[in-house]
Amino acid sequence: MLDWLWSMSVAEATGFFFALNILIVSGAYCLECIVPRFFKTAPQNLQHSSLELLLMTCTVFVNAVISVAGWLLWKHGYLQLNRHAGVLTALRDTLVLVLLMDFALYVLHRIAHMRWFYGWAHYLHHKYREVRPLTLFVMHPLEALGFGSLWVITLMLSAFSFESVIIFLQLNLYFGIAAHCGFSPYPKWLSKTMAALAIAEPDFHLQHHRDETVNLGFYTTIWDRVFRTNLR
């Protein structure tokens, strides 16, 4: 796959990353339509305002541009990927990426909730207290640019294995959609186990949308516990 990505022209890479991001949002929309048929507690109102649709479109555009920028940095040698990592190296790199990004996103999220920035950008995401999968993509373009840039900068810190990058991106998408599904699809025993292991489960972020002063983490609850911003 890396050889295929390397062989692309700028136009081909741009088309690929735009199509990929459109596919991701389309998948989230399909989940939003299908899940309520199987879970009665899932949000049933599937109507989206024109503002939501506009912000989602902007997020798709920004994410695609960030993807192309990361691809260009890789092509020009500013971003390195380990092509020959073993299983243990890939797992180690995945853990490092999760912890690094979790901390960085926690810090960025706290900044987003500072009065001057919140009123300028982040309030748009919090207009929707009853979240749905597509709410993940409803944000100010500057926030999408900030989150995406943070990811690219993190990748430039070290030559992470290609496998760990792919795994992390899948985990990021899973946690993002799960956090915005609007209900907890897991049995109670699994939710309790995740909480005990400091893994963020859907109710964790749902509480944040209802009380913006708590639960600022993304993948884990570690930093909320350390900095005492978890719901107690």
How are the secondary structure elements laid out?
Blueprint (H helix, E strand, L loop, with lengths): L1 H5 L3 H25 L15 H26 L5 E2 L4 H26 L2 H4 L22 H15 L4 E2 H18 L8 H9 L5 H9 L11 H5 L6
Parallel strand pairs: 1-2
Helix pairs in contact: 2-3, 3-6, 4-6, 4-7
Q: Could you please describe the fold and organization of this structure?
A:
This protein has helices spanning 2-6, 10-34, 50-75, 87-112, 115-118, 141-155, 162-179, 188-196, 202-210, 222-226; strands at residues 81-82, 160-161. By secondary structure, it is mainly alpha-helical. It has one domain. It has a two-stranded parallel ribbon. Helix 3 (50-75) runs parallel beside helix 6, helix 4 (87-112) packs antiparallel against helix 6 (141-155) and helix 4 (87-112) crosses helix 7. It starts with a helix and ends in a 6-residue tail after the last helix. The model has no long low-confidence stretch (mean pLDDT 90).
Order of helices and strands: HHHEHHHEHHHH
Number of separate strands: 2
Q: Domains counted in the coordinates: how many?
A: 1
Average pLDDT, all residues? 90
Number of helices: 10
The secondary-structure class comes to: mainly alpha
Going across the biggest sheet, name each strand in turn. 1-2
Q: Mind telling me the C-alpha Rg?
A: 18 Å
Strand content: under 5%
For the sheet with most strands, the description reads: 2 strands, parallel
Helix content: 55-70%
